[in-house]
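Closing statement on the 2-acetamido-2-deoxy-beta-D-glucopyranose sub-project.
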Amino acid sequence: MRSLLAFFIAISDLAGYKSLVMLMNKGRKIRHRSVVFPKVQLSLGYLKKMVNANLMSGNLDNSFSALMVSGGGESGQAQNGGLGTILSGWKDLPMELLLRIISVAGDDRMVVVASGVCTGWRDALGWGVTSLSFSWCQDHMNDLVISLAHKFPKLQVLSLRQIKPQLEDSAVEAVANYCHDLRELDLSRSFRLTDRSLYALAHGCLHLTRLNISGSSNFSDAALVYLTSQCRNLKCLNLCGCVRAASDRALQAIARNCDQLQSLNLGWCDNITDKGVTSLASGCPELRAVDLCGCVLITDESVVALANGCPHLRSLGLYYCQNITDRAMYSLAANSRVRGKGMSWDAGRSSRSKDDKDGLASLNISQCTALTPPAVQAVCDSFPALHTCPERHSLIISGCLSLTSVHCACALHPHRAGRAILSNHAY
Ligand SMILES: *[C@@H]1O[C@H](CO)[C@@H](O)[C@H](O)[C@H]1NC(C)=O
Ligand SMILES: *[C@@H]1O[C@H](CO)[C@@H](O)[C@H](O)[C@H]1NC(C)=O
Ligand SMILES: *[C@@H]1O[C@H](CO)[C@@H](O)[C@H](O)[C@H]1NC(C)=O
Ligand SMILES: *[C@@H]1O[C@H](CO)[C@@H](O)[C@H](O)[C@H]1NC(C)=O
Ligand SMILES: *[C@@H]1O[C@H](CO)[C@@H](O)[C@H](O)[C@H]1NC(C)=O
């Protein structure tokens, strides 16, 4: 309640009381002229603090349950007090004013409030909103998504990340039924979702480019295979902890269907083997980031395949892949040199920026206990962006006692100097 009052105050502060009254008069039937606008001058900072304090306190969640109880948020006339009752007075506010509220608020939470209570405004709003997050919902995410999905047909980015699992297939189905333009979806930690959700997305959201189902452990690989056969524009896929879904068969399907894939997290998907990863490396040449942490069955074959097949690889996670040996390290290092040589032919003006953009910039080989210092040192020496400086390691070797002698220069000078000489020759 307080937050809404705060918004009135914000309007009078921001646009000025006069223009507010002008807006009000331009509006359609005005029944609420008697609303008192305090001519208080408040700073935006103070206002935001006030609003956030109220939103944090969980009031909003309660208010939503009131709205939900009163029927899908459309009427917004909650009988049991709360936000619904207060807000019924907002229905006749002119569009311009409400637009202003949203732009001032810049906050998904207020978008949702407004869409639930202001009939005329809501439709226009829905057509304009492309990005929403429900991650702040602690209790009513499922109902809220079901009742609001149809109002946001232009939605492109949606976060349904959960602190406690509450989302069910019905909500994802609602999203898939109405939000056909969706590009980015975060469904992480949705333990309660089943394959129905993935099938719904595969039918309704063909333009998905980023999908995060990290920790959603109940999906099967058959459903994931189907999804990748429909959503072929995927660029970023997080399957961390999806032990059932991330099988070799699924990786083969990804390799076949998603040749634009740039980032894939397979953390703790401990059922995958070299078979899956080598297909991936040959089918997805755009890969820049691959996390294989805890994939205990993979061996050097996987790393060699990635080193050879994915020239843009920037980040590789091999944490706890204990069957990785020096051979994997040497293949990474060797590929850097091959590429470096190719580059020097046409080095010219952009060699410096290529240095920054190409090659491994992050390698996590923590707990890879079979590695020896010379092999790791070779990787380190091949990629200027890898280092072991305190505070900002990009070569992570913690837990590898045998590697304490590995040392990558912190100061960029040694690497840079070497490169500079190289590119001078290239001229
Ligand atoms: C996916 O979700 C997890 C868990 O919520 C989060 O840690 C991670 O940053 C997300 N990844 C991407 C690429 O969005
Ligand atoms: C996983 O999904 C199946 C249906 O596909 C369901 O019966 C089961 O209860 C789910 N498991 C969990 C832990 O939610
Ligand atoms: C692991 O993969 C095999 C086939 O490669 C499959 O039979 C098995 O069910 C999978 N295990 C899990 C936990 O999904
Ligand atoms: C290395 O990878 C593991 C597994 O993903 C992660 O828990 C750890 O934080 C990483 N180390 C660093 C320093 O990023
Ligand atoms: C991993 O290494 C262990 C011994 O270090 C070996 O017994 C096992 O067969 C290896 N796994 C694979 C998939 O090569």
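Residues 297, 299, 323 surround 2-acetamido-2-deoxy-beta-D-glucopyranose (ligand 5) (CB under 6 Å). With this model delivered, the sub-project is considered complete and its resources will be redirected to Aim 3.
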